[in-house]
Amino acid sequence: MTQTTDHSAPSGQVLDLTKRLPPEARDHLEQAARDQVRASASGLADASTGTVKLSSEVDGEPFVIEQRDNERRRGLKALIPASLTNPDVWRHRGEVLAHAAGYHAAHSPVYVWRIAKLSSIGLYAELKSAAGYLLVTEYGAMIDEAKRQAKKQGYADNSDVAQLRAERKQIGKARRRENLTILSATGFTSYTAAVVGIAQVWGLAMAFPALIPVIGVMYACGARELRRRGDEYVVFEPTALDEDAPLTDAQINRALRIAVPAFKEDDEIQLVGLIQKADINASQCVFKLPAHVTVSKLIEKREEIAGALQVDENWLDIKQDGHPTRCSFWIATSDPFDKVRRSPLLGQTTPLDLWNDGAPIAYNKRGETRRLTIRDIMLLIGGATRTGKGMALRNLICALALDPRINVRIVDGKPTGEHLVYAPIAATMFGRERNRLDFLLDAYEAEIERREDLLASLGESKMTAKLLKQLSIEILIIDELATYTRKNVPGSAARMARLEFLSSVGAGLGVLLVLATQHPEVEVISAGLRGNMTGRWAQRTADADGTNAILGKGATGRGMRAHDIPRDKRGLGWLDMDGIAEELARSFLIDEENAGEASEIIAVGVELRRAAGRLPGQWDDPIEAYLVQMTGLTSAAGGSGGRGKPGRPGQAAANATVLDVLLDMFKDEADRVPLADVRAAFAAWNPRRWAQAEEEDDATYEGRFGKALGALIDEQLEGTGVELEPKRWRAGEGRVRGYLLADVQAAVEAARKIRN
């Protein structure tokens, strides 16, 4: 007898296969089934009943009703094109409408004349047509033809002519009695009487609106008459083609048809989104080109497109945006580099990460910040004198100051003292001392070997971000390379070869090089050294050869004409470096001369480096130690006085006194220094304290300077019994006041003894 079961299967026992699943698989299956039920109609209905649970009680549950509502709201928002919610798009549309309103208002007298002329043509045509209909003028031609035939055939009577005249009279009489004719005449006279009455009672001003309907009708009749004749006519000018009109797709289409041969008359662009307002009085858009026209063809014809749009070539920017027929188009209505932009470093109080984020050094025509990532860059900055190379370096060095992981070493080959403001953060800084540069290159070669050994021991092939805690980045900046590498300079060939070696192997080891020169010819920078400079920035050059010497052969042929940069655009140049396309860019403004902005940034850098233990003198610097070993003098923080002149070790720039600055002025066996040179040196040492103010005349400045300097000297010599006063001596035909070397040395020694 078969045992009964409690299930409906025809035979056998039901097996629960889920019990054979692993616990993880069974839990996953149960969760999937629960989610499926909750997503059904019954599940949704059930979710609205029962006991309310707190959020802490449902943590981990994947199904939340509120999420479905949020997704629904996001879905509705996704249906609205992003361009319609972009405020820049509406700003541009507002400009288009405002321009159209102003343009049409200015041209309204022309439009009134054209409408009046067209209406008069319509009135004349309709009156002529009405007269012809009522007077049956079409019979006139037939009567004339009948007369010619009778005369030609020699008929004595004019029976045909008489018959035609009788028919015309009969038809004309019938037409003039038609209901339409009578109603038209009645309406015309009534309308005329009404207009005259309005004018009589309320004046001509009120009568004009009553004439608008008839003017409109006559305008339409005139337009029909001109179309019948085949004459072209224009009443309202297209505002989009006006010279000052905001950018529209009609403008772009017309310009491309004029400038790009491949863009045919029936070709049109397809806008991706809407045209929107951009920065610096500009507009931008993205559009698709016909399949047979690529963005590269537009770039080749950039000058012609600019001409068709009636703007300067530098006011136009064309880039490929994705595939070859998708174009990013940007156009300015004024010079995008006309106004100089302030550096984003101003107000910066926290450290920068130049390895990842880069140093903000310039802005392009679109107003986008261009950043130089301090990883493996070798940078060459070239251009004629007074073109902005110093401002380019100022942007770079100020950014370097705010990253304590970077050791900045500056070799200044110019006599101006332009870089003295950076002395407090400079691991090494000195001026035109060729032998010291040779020692510095010795130290760099030793540093490269040390880094190679360290990377090998760590199993690394090159410098990486994780090694920045163990290895700081070394960056050597040489301003005016010609001072050290020109052919007539002793040791220039060997120096050039060593710089070339440094530029070829240093990048992967975190040892970087920045060179600036106004003499980019081969005798100043060799082809090998130039080839290793992965980044190039050409300020205004004297000629095309100078441009090609900096940016490489064929640069001018690719449109990078640095020699065409206007003289009044200092800091503007062609950038060509990794991560940055070949483009015009202008240095940010950091105004040190009038506002002391570089000093403010450097002061922040000093505090950041002090907190990180990376201020000159706070850490063991093998490179500077080697220089001290070889010369007995230190150039850390610009040497004693921070004036870019090596001094005695242990005397930091911040601790330098006015006596130290005076003593450092004597060079090349000079035994006296005029006061004019003293004022210039002190102004370079501390411009904010010692430089002449803009509104200050020479006499006032000299008096203030002498009084302040004398007071400080007396303060430092207090208790020594020694006095230091300017002396006079004869120079040429006049007499000069200044300081004698022996007097300054005696004062310095006396001050040292009393301090000790």
Summarize the structure.
The chain is of the alpha/beta class and 756 residues long. Helices cover 46% and strands 13% of the residues.
Strand line-up across the major sheet: 6-5-14-13-12-7-11-10-8-9
SS element count, helices? 26
CATH class of the largest domain: Alpha Beta
Task: Give the averaged pLDDT, no decimals.
Answer: 83
How far from one another are the termini?
121 Å
Number of domains: 4
Helix-strand category: alpha/beta
Helix content: 40-55%
- Give the strand tally: 17
Q: What is the CATH-assigned architecture of the largest domain?
A: 3-Layer(aba) Sandwich
Shape type: elongated
Q: Output the CATH homologous superfamily of the largest domain.
A: P-loop containing nucleotide triphosphate hydrolases
CATH topology of the largest domain: Rossmann fold
Query: What Rg, in angstroms, do the CA atoms define?
Result: 44 Å
Describe the sheet with the most strands.
Answer: 10 strands, mixed
Portion in strands? 5-15%
Q: Which spans have pLDDT < 50 for at least 5 consecutive residues? A: 1-5, 63-71
Question: What is this structure's SSE topology?
Answer:
Blueprint: H1 23-38, H2 41-47, H3 65-78, H4 87-106, H5 108-134, H6 138-153, H7 159-176, H8 179-202, H9 204-229, H10 249-259, E1 270-278, E2 282-288, H11 295-300, H12 302-308, E3 316-320, E4 326-332, E5 359-364, E6 369-372, E7 378-382, H13 389-401, E8 406-412, E9 426-430, H14 434-458, E10 473-479, H15 482-485, H16 492-505, E11 511-517, H17 527-532, E12 535-538, H18 544-551, E13 572-577, E14 580-587, H19 592-595, H20 597-612, H21 622-631, H22 658-664, E15 672-674, H23 675-685, H24 687-690, H25 698-716, E16 727-731, E17 734-740, H26 741-755
Parallel strand pairs: 7-11, 7-12, 8-9, 8-10, 10-11
Antiparallel strand pairs: 1-2, 2-4, 3-4, 5-6, 5-14, 12-13, 13-14, 15-17, 16-17
Helix pairs in contact: 5-9, 6-7, 8-9, 10-12, 13-20, 14-16, 14-21, 22-26
